[in-house]
Design goal:
The chain starts with a helix and ends in a 5-residue tail after the last strand. It has one helix at about 5-30; strands at about 45-50, 55-60, 70, 85-90, 100-105, 115. Strands 2-1-3 form a three-stranded antiparallel β-sheet, with no helix packed on it. By secondary structure, it is an alpha+beta fold.
Length: about 120
């Protein structure tokens, strides 16, 4: 007669495999990356320089240094393709091969931006 412990090990192993598989399926379906990288940390937002390229993060609501302005897209994931709650956007009138950026799908697009799939 098998010991109860010996019968439980295959069942526990099977449950562990199902849990890991379920988690992997959720990540694949939702588009959520395993390592979730954002433009800035919690409570921060990206800031752009008025005179050219480059950005940095500042605490949301803080006073910005001269010659800078808040990024109109706000804090966002570095990638958003197939990610729940986000759409891909590009500057208005951008070429069809322009690199898209992320924007929350429940907010109105800022002036100068359009959905990536409607780019000209």
């Amino acid at each position: 007669m098998k010991k109860p412990r010996a019968r439980a090990l295959p069942i526990l192993g099977g449950l562990a495999v199902l849990a890991v598989g379920g988690f992997a399926a959720y990540l694949a379906i939702s588009g959520t990356p395993l390592i979730d990288e954002w433009q800035c940390g919690d409570g921060e937002a990206p800031v752009l320089r008025d005179d050219g390229p480059g950005s940095f993060c500042e605490e949301e609501g803080s006073e910005l240094p001269a010659g800078t302005h808040w990024d109109p897209l706000g804090n966002r994931p570095l990638t958003c393709e197939d990610r729940w709650g986000w759409v891909q956007v590009v500057p208005s009138g951008a070429a069809s091969d322009a690199d898209p950026d992320c924007f929350p799908d429940d907010r109105e697009l800022p002036t100068g931006w359009q959905l990536a799939d409607t780019a000209a």
